[in-house]
């Protein structure tokens, strides 16, 4: 290994062992892909990742060997290297000089390591970086090459730099080219959007690239935002590819905050929920679900009015979209403010209708249980016949979680609406539904069921005494 530390990694023996392990695992994956009747996308993606890893090992070993062969000569002249050819971080001769946002030049591996650690300032000037893109400094590279020739030093041939995510400079250049096409003709927009969708799905590394500059997401969305500003119609396939790409890059944790805080993202997702292909609408809901993993995002999405189109799409009941919509509503309603908004936007009626039709009962009962802490939601449940519906589910389901959610909602109704006591007592006298749950339910279900029974019995005793 070169003492400069430019290519830090495993010794050759360890690298060779890793290569053998990767090849064995790759053989298993390829065999499973070929043998299975259906296409296993997960296996294909893992196989691609292993191919990338093998390629990286090969390139690093080649470069490392070249560095070791030339290291002796470099040590002899290290004292005479001009300061402008040394990396400010490594204090060694730069092999791949790049420029950062402040105009300072560093050796690529060292500045990449600095940025990867979460630093967003220039190491020399301490200025905050407007972006984290690095650009090759061809002038300095040529000057270093000439200096090395004059001093008999053989720098390794230029190789594609591979970062921790397995992306080369060619990959990065291609990514920037695709973003540039999003402001071009319709045919080029469609071509670029389709490829960005594919890249961000199959190669997780491409998702992280969107976090390097605040300009990248607006560039991706430019065809949609332009159509919205001009009140024009956007092509459905172009919209689907862009929204799906937005979903893919939102999966990357470091992108979630950036995506939501990018102007027009939420409004464009809301537009996608209302119109476009059903796949577009479903993927827009999935994107909101993914983004709402952050509590700060939950608040921003709720304030933007996204719950209403989500509830409307849930009301439509398209099978392809139901699960993603329900997941998004559930995540958003974890915070109190969004519960109020969901109830105001008609969530209780829509959810009860779907539950009554036994549609996605598991997910929707969980949402209803969360909403039951809202007084207006309880009143609506009483008006819409929730008691008989929930008691019916307890009788017929074998799912302990669903029983628990049902009895938790009934408990809240019982303690807030005395007009429903009669219906619960009649259920007890005929089916003993609540008593059975008090004996056989989960710990929480037992507690809620016993609470209802005590309330009902106390009411009966008071009536008899009177």
Automatic annotation (TrEMBL):
Q: Which domain of life is it from?
A: Eukaryota
Tell me which SMART domains the record gives. ARM, Ubox
Q: What is this enzyme's EC?
A: 2.3.2.27
Where the record annotates domain U-box, the positions are: 80-154
The keyword Coiled coil is annotated on this UniProt entry: no
Q: Which pathway features in its UniProt record?
A: Protein modification; protein ubiquitination
Give a yes or no for keyword Signal in this entry: no
Q: Which Pfam families does this entry report, sorted A to Z?
A: ARM_PUB, U-box
Protein name as catalogued:
RING-type E3 ubiquitin transferase
The record lists the organism as Rehmannia glutinosa
Q: What is the taxonomic lineage of the source species? A: Eukaryota, Viridiplantae, Streptophyta, Embryophyta, Tracheophyta
């Amino acid at each position: 290994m070169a003492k400069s530390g430019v290519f830090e990694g495993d010794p050759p023996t360890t690298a060779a062992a890793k290569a053998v392990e990767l090849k064995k695992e790759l053989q298993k994956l390829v065999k499973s892909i070929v043998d299975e009747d259906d296409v296993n996308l997960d296996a294909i993606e893992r196989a691609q990742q292993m191919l990338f890893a093998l390629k990286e090992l090969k390139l690093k070993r080649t470069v490392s060997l070249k560095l070791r062969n030339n290291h002796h000569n470099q040590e002899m002249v290290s004292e005479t290297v001009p300061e402008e050819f040394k990396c400010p971080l490594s204090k060694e001769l730069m092999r791949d000089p790049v420029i950062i946002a402040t105009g300072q030049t560093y050796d690529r591996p060292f500045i990449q390591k600095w940025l990867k650690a979460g630093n967003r300032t220039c190491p020399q000037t301490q200025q905050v970086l407007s972006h984290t893109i690095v650009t090759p400094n061809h002038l300095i590279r040529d000057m270093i090459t000439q200096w090395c020739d004059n001093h008999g030093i053989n720098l390794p041939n230029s190789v594609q730099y591979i970062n921790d995510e397995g992306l080369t400079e060619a990959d990065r250049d291609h990514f920037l080219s695709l973003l540039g096409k999003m402001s071009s003709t319709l045919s080029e927009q469609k071509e670029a959007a389709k490829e960005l969708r594919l890249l961000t799905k199959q190669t997780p590394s491409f998702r992280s690239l969107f976090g390097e500059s605040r300009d990248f997401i607006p560039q991706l969305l430019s065809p949609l935002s332009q159509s919205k500003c001009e009140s024009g119609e956007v092509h459905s396939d172009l919209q689907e590819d862009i929204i799906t790409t937005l979903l893919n890059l939102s999966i990357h944790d470091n992108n979630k905050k950036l995506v939501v805080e990018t102007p027009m993202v939420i409004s464009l997702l809301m537009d996608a929920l209302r119109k476009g292909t059903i796949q577009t609408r479903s993927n827009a809901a999935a994107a909101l679900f993914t983004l709402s993993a952050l509590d700060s995002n939950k608040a921003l999405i709720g304030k933007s009015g996204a719950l209403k189109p989500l509830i409307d799409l849930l009301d439509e009941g398209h099978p392809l979209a139901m699960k993603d919509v329900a997941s998004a509503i559930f995540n958003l309603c974890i915070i109190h403010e969004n519960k109020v908004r969901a109830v105001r936007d008609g969530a209780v009626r829509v959810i009860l209708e779907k539950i009554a039709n036994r549609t996605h009962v598991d997910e929707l009962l969980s949402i209803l249980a969360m909403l039951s802490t809202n007084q207006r939601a309880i009143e609506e449940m009483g008006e819409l016949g929730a008691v008989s519906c929930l008691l019916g589910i307890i009788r017929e389901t074998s799912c302990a979680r669903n029983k628990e959610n049902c009895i938790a909602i009934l408990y809240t109704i019982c303690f807030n609406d005395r007009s429903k006591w009669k219906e619960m007592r009649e259920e007890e006298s005929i089916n003993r539904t609540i008593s059975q749950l008090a004996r056989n339910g989960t710990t929480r279900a037992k507690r809620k069921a016993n609470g209802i029974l005590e309330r009902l019995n106390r009411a009966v005793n008071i009536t008899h005494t009177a």
